[in-house]
Amino acid sequence: MTRRKLSLVLFLAASIAGPLWAGAHSAAAFKKLQSLSGDWEGKDGHGMPVKTSFKVLASDTAVMETLSPSGMEEMVTLYSIDGDAIALVHYCPTNNQPRMRVVPASDDIKELSFDFEGAGNLKSPTAGHQHHLVLRFDDSDHLTETWTWRQNNKDIPMLFHLTRKKN
User: What is the pTM of this model?
Assistant: First the structure.
């Protein structure tokens, strides 16, 4: 095989393997999200009760979270694999639907930090919306969620410490 043909073969192999390797991290992250399936309860940053539940749906291609903080209407978030990333759409009682995304850096998932990519039904960029989410996997039965609410270019974190509910 000539040097040129060998270079072309190696280039093509790298072009194919690169996305597959990157996708493997998103698959590991999604398995971590799927492992959250069940009911969770805990407290927010002010000591008020909060409940959430995770459910794996659509032939294991989506995870739905239903979050119910004290004194607020419930919110629904759908997570799914998006190529080399995990994407989410958050359905908020404020009637907008922020979209966020994270590209996991490895298979050893300790946290996922989702960045805002846009929103449906958002009247302006300064209108109140969820702008960032960090899911920290403390261990298999403890999860910390930090949602960042952005309004008028000011960020307000909302912290939830959750424990898996034992049946």
Answer: 0.85
